[in-house]
Amino acid sequence: MPYIAKTFSYMAKSARLLVPIAILPALLLGMFVKPLGFITFLPLYAVTDVKSFSDIAWLIFDKYAVTHVYPMILIFVVLTLCCAFSLSVIEKHFRIGKLMIKAPFKDVNSSLFPVLKTLFVLTAVYFVWKFVLCGIATLLHFVISGAGVPNWWDIVILSLVITALFLLLMYFGMPAVFWAPLMLTFGYSFVDAFIESMSLARKAGFKLYIALMLPFVVVIMLQCVVSFLPLPIIALKAISVLLYLFLIVYLVSFMMNAAFDLTGLERRDIKKKLI
């Protein structure tokens, strides 16, 4: 798929700058938040004695991070700053052909509000999404299994329902890929970026959908496998950090690659072949 190939190609040549920028938010996320917990909670759910809504809710949400509040605020602030920095570095690389950090504060400032608006909306949607899943999982559990450890029918049906809803969420979430790049590159307002992004998403269609899904599928599969391994907590946290690091670097690279490609902007970081 073209967007996947372009994203990995760009990641390979820009990793020396994008990885260090993404390390801090990846560390914070890995310490406090289980990767994609709305799906990766299933292995633990299968052996949990469920007596109430809260038993399932604390499998999907990260109890310490939510109840103490400060981890979520810290993660949001650091992730916003680092994503703003990354997108500015990539945009500059695409425009002038040089991958460099010359004025970091200026780079962060230039894309801070586009990234802040995007992450604020996505974070709100994500939390609402998790609450909805908690409700669905609880309803299915007590209808199919009743109080106690879930039976196999419950686990299978819940897995299918969550997977279907996740695929649907990713489909409707495709336009969000373009919000920050459009605001940063073209100076659009959030409303204008929202409207234009729907047109770009329709234009790319299935290719964009698969490229967006890929990192999430990889992280979900690896995290579920890790859940079955008898690893010490420090190893589990280290793996979570690496998964988040991959997810962040892939997504910021993918967003700008897709935006420049679909808007027809010239990329000076790609050397043209002489015929």
What does this structure look like?
- This protein is an all-alpha fold and 275 residues long.
- It has 12 helices and no strands.
- It has helices at 2-32, 37-40, 42-45, 53-60, 63-68, 70-96, 104-145, 152-173, 179-186, 190-204, 206-227, 233-263.
What labels would you give this structure?
single chain; 80% helix
- Helix fraction, binned, reads over 70%
Q: In total, how many beta strands?
A: 0
Q: The biggest beta sheet, please? A: none
- Alpha-carbon distance between the two ends: 25 Å
Compressed to H and E, one letter per element, the order equals: HHHHHHHHHHHH
What does the overall shape look like? Answer: globular
Poorly predicted ranges = none
SS strand fraction: under 5%
The mean pLDDT is 91
The number of helical segments is 12
Assembly context of the chains? single chain
The whole-angstrom Rg is 20 Å
Query: Structural class of the helix and strand makeup?
Result: mainly alpha
Task: Summarize the entry for a quick read.
The chain has 275 residues and is mostly helical.
List the helices and strands and how they pair.
Layout: H1 2-32, H2 37-40, H3 42-45, H4 53-60, H5 63-68, H6 70-96, H7 104-145, H8 152-173, H9 179-186, H10 190-204, H11 206-227, H12 233-263
